[in-house]
């Protein structure tokens, strides 16, 4: 019997910053190191908006000698060999960059948060659907085997009925002024849609939605969209949020998602799922779960560590490859409608706290000239 060859997914990487390089390293790790044999990945090309040299330097550090370097994103999306574009620009740019890729007929994996606001995401979803293209938010956490295992345990009633999820991501490792001098860094820069909610809060929210929403029957989802109440503390220098707490009232349970660049993460679990018969806690940071702990009254605590052979971004890349191979337009692990509901929650919290970004990045108008506007707005791209 003939052995089936693995499906090869051919990637183009848009931008050459920190996460682009982390993703590329994981993408090129041999699939066998995570016991995967049905798909493989090839990095076909990478593009920098600032210079061709930057794209070449980016590729020179990776084991992909035949990959092509481009000095513009437009050139990258025109490469006929690329199946899917991974967008790793600041989130202020995701809407315009994803539109560029979709209009060029490319499938898209877009870094989190998907866009600046929900109406932008709705436009991307319509564009992808119209063109029959795959689209997914790169919430890599959801594709970890440990996240899938936790969802299975909760669904099967390991801790009874889940009544509350609490999740947090706090990220203050150094004195703030030193880390973000002049307020230019994308974490605090309003022109790059900075702020804790969009950058970090999306992970806390993803745990709430994974555990209180994801497994609801489809017909129940619409009426189960949560009521949202959020508070924020602002970063004085730039006015974006530096700390936030969001309370989500679902018909059947409550979610509490918080994130901060003011406070440093302590040893408390990054997520807790509280049920009628016990709780499950996530071990490790909210974005990169390293295991879980099951606590039930009268029973011994069960700690389950999970091996991650690398950073762990390859699992989302594998999910994308399988969806494209199977002709799916979206992932069941990171469904588009769920990304949209989470974007709406973040819109609501920003509205409640009067946090609005410059019109140029909140806009839902896309045209090719928008790329130039964004460059002017955010200054030089490093
Ligand atoms: N999944 C995760 O764990 C994770 C972690 C960190 C960040 N992220 C997300 O990934 C995105 C990028 O974050 P990052 O930390 O990689 O940022 P970064 O290091 O600042 O890189 C962003 C890159 O985007 C490109 N870019 C295009 N226009 C730009 C502009 N006007 N200003 C700045 N950069 C511009 C630049 O590459 P070129 O010059 O080559 O075009 C730049 O190197 C963000 O949306 C963030 O939320 C995800």
UniProtKB/TrEMBL annotation:
Catalytic activity: D-xylose + NADP(+) = D-xylono-1,5-lactone + NADPH + H(+)
Keyword list, A-Z: Oxidoreductase
Domain Gfo/Idh/MocA-like oxidoreductase N-terminal: 10-136
EC number(s) reported in the record: 1.1.1.179
Keyword flag Cytoplasm: no
Family recorded in the similarity comment: Belongs to the Gfo/Idh/MocA family.
Family matches, as PANTHER family: DIHYDRODIOL DEHYDROGENASE, PUTATIVE (AFU_ORTHOLOGUE AFUA_1G07520)-RELATED, OXIDOREDUCTASES
Name of the molecule in the record: D-xylose 1-dehydrogenase (NADP(+), D-xylono-1,5-lactone-forming)
Top-level taxonomy: Eukaryota, Fungi, Dikarya, Ascomycota, Pezizomycotina
């Amino acid at each position: 019997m003939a052995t089936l060859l693995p499906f090869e997914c051919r990637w183009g990487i848009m931008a050459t910053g920190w996460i682009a390089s982390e993703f590329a390293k994981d993408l090129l790790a041999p699939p066998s190191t995570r016991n995967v044999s049905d798909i493989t990945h090839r990095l076909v090309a990478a593009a920098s908006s600032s210079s061709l040299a930057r794209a070449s330097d980016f590729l020179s550090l990776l084991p992909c000698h035949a990959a092509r370097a481009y000095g513009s994103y437009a050139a990258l999306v025109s490469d006929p060999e690329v199946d899917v574009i991974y967008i790793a620009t600041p989130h202020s740019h995701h809407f315009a960059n994803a539109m560029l890729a979709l209009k060029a007929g490319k499938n898209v994996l877009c870094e989190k948060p998907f866009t600046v606001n929900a109406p932008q995401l709705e436009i991307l979803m319509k564009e992808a659907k119209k063109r029959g293209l795959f689209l997914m938010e790169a919430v890599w956490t959801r594709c970890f085997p440990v996240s899938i295992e936790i969802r299975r345990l909760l669904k099967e009633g390991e801790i009874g009925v889940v009544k509350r999820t609490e999740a947090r991501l706090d990220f203050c490792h150094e004195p703030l002024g030193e880390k973000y001098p002049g307020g230019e860094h994308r974490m605090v820069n309003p022109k790059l849609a900075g702020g804790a909610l969009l950058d970090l809060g999306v992970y806390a929210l993803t745990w709430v939605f994974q555990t209180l929403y994801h497994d609801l029957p489809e017909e129940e989802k619409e009426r189960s969209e949560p009521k949202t109440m959020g508070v924020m503390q602002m970063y004085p220098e730039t006015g974006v949020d530096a700390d936030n707490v969001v309370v989500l009232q679902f018909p059947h349970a409550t979610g509490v998602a918080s994130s901060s660049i003011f406070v440093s993460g302590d040893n408390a679990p990054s997520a807790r799922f509280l049920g009628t018969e016990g709780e499950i806690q996530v071990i490790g940071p909210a974005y990169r779960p390293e295991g879980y702990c099951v606590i039930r009254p009268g029973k011994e605590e069960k700690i389950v560590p999970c091996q991650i052979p690398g950073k762990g971004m390859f699992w989302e890349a594998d999910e994308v490859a399988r969806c494209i191979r199977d002709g799916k337009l979206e992932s069941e692990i990171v469904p588009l409608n769920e990304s949209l509901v989470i974007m709406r929650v973040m819109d609501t919290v920003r509205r409640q706290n009067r946090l609005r970004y410059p019109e140029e990045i909140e806009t839902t108008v896309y045209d090719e000239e928008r790329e130039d506007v964004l460059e002017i707005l955010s200054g030089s791209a490093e």
